[in-house]
Amino acid sequence: MQLGVRPNPTQVVQQLLQSLSAGMTVGMMRNVVPALAGSSMADPSLERFSGLLA
């Protein structure tokens, strides 16, 4: 077993891609959830909390 970035480039690239995809997923959810709270849900009390999620 060799430790470090240079001996393990495939693992480093795999972890970078996984972190990127997880970050993009969380980022998209932050944009979608407030829009859903304001438009598709009928409860008007949720609209005042949609600003907290953005």
Keywords, please?
mainly alpha, 0% strand, 2 helices, 54 residues
Distance between the termini: 44 Å
The radius of gyration computed from the alpha-carbon positions, rounded to a whole number of angstroms, is 19 Å
Q: Oligomeric status of the shown chains? A: single chain
Mean pLDDT level: 75
Shape summary: rod-shaped
Report the β-strand fraction as a percent range.
under 5%
Element string (H = helix, E = strand): HH
Largest sheet: none
Low-confidence stretches: none
Portion of residues within helices: over 70%
Describe this structure in words.
Helix content is 70%, strand content 0%. The protein has a domain at 21-53. The protein has helices at residues 9-39, 47-53. It has 54 residues and is mainly alpha-helical.
Q: How would you concisely characterize the structure shown here?
A:
With 54 residues, this protein is mainly alpha-helical. 70% of the residues lie in helices and 0% in strands. α1 (9-39) runs antiparallel to α2 (47-53).
Task: Please describe the topology of this protein.
Layout: H1 9-39, H2 47-53
Helix pairs in contact: 1-2
